[in-house]
Amino acid sequence: MMNTAETLSGASTGKPLAGWRVLVPRGGPWGDGVAAKLRSQGAVPVVAPLINFAPTEDLTALESALADLADGTFDWLTLTSATTVDVLYAYRAVIPATTKVAAVGETTAAALSAVGYRVDLVPEKDNSAAGMADELIALEPEPRRVLTLRSEIAKPVLTKRLIAAGHDVRQVVAYRTVGVPVTERIARDVANGRINAILVTSGSVAEQVRGQFADIPEETVIAAIGPRTAKDARKVGLSVDIVARRQTVDALLDAVSGLPLPHASDEFHL
Predict the structure, then answer these.
(1) Directed axis angle between helix 203-212 and helix 227-235, to 10°?
(2) DSSP of 153-209
(3) Smallest Cα–Cα separation from 244: which of 235, 253, 236?
(4) How far apart are CA 153 and CA 150, in angstroms?
(5) Which tens digits make up the pLDDT trace of 135-169?
């Protein structure tokens, strides 16, 4: 239980998120990395994976593509979500030096780096499949061999645009997104305000936050990692309190740290 004195004592350390309890909605190496950043800023991370990936219904196509990737068949590999990185890591996929890697945004890029993969391209302006397509097409005027990995529900925007530009593209569904029920304790902590902020890092996470936490206190900060995610969150009925200026974890935590700590003058309810 935290009281005012404890909060002020934590704040006196100069750590920007002293006293905060923050829900991290993904596990694995990415979630561990975010938790470490939160601890370094004085917060208490609550890692509660809300989404996970389930195997694609066409494992043969995925395994064949990953084998060809390891053999150097492709000039580019494109990834449009951090969950796709989880699939690569689960398969211990090999990305040869001859294959360049494009990540749709800093979240996906950070997930790649967390498990030891390199990143050659992150869109500078538009962190979307369309934005990635624009930059790849501008960067590669000659036809290239491209492997695009996506989720079952993602629209094939990137694939269609690259094909229209003359590239040889193999599109493979890498995974299906499934929700992961949180524990009763975490659901109770959200409902009674013990969780001060919930990080929303994708549309899929937003759907799970809305579906699993029926009663989110008004004081709880809903923090979206970028404008696109904020739009997806609002679409499913979440009230977004803060939006990171850049689509990075650091920018997201900076945005949260600029807000007053909810319940700072009150003890939490059990």
Answers:
(1) 40
(2) TS--HHHHHHHHTT-EEEEEEEEEEEE-PPPHHHHHHHHTT---EEEE-SHHHHHHH
(3) 253
(4) 8
(5) 999 999 999 999 999 988 888 889 999 999 999 99
∠ CA(248), CA(84), CA(245), 5° rounding? 15
Distance CA 218, CA 196 (A): 10
Tokens of 2: 């935290």
**Could you tell me if 184 and 158 are in contact, meaning their C-beta atoms sit under 8 angstroms apart?**
no
User: Does residue 7 sit in helix, strand or coil?
Assistant: helix
* 80-100 residues labelled b (16+ CB within 10 A) or e (exposed): bbbbbbbbbbeeebebeeebb
Type of residue numbered 204: S
Structure-token match 């969780």, residue found: 195
Number of H helices, E strands in the chain: 11, 10
* Cα gap 152→131, rounded to integer Å: 20
β partners of residue 51: 179
Q: Alpha-carbon distance 55 to 177, whole Å?
A: 9
If one counts every other C-beta atom within 10 angstroms of the C-beta of residue 196, the result is 26
* 47 burial level (CB within 10 Å; 0-12, 13-18, 19+): middle
The tens digit of pLDDT for each residue in 48-89 reads: 999 888 889 999 999 999 999 999 999 999 998 888 998 999
Q: How far lies 130's CA from each of 159, 226, 243, in Å? A: 10, 16, 21
Burial annotation 209-222 (CB, 10 A radius, 16+ → b, else e): bbebbeebbeebbb
**pTM of the entire predicted model:** 0.75
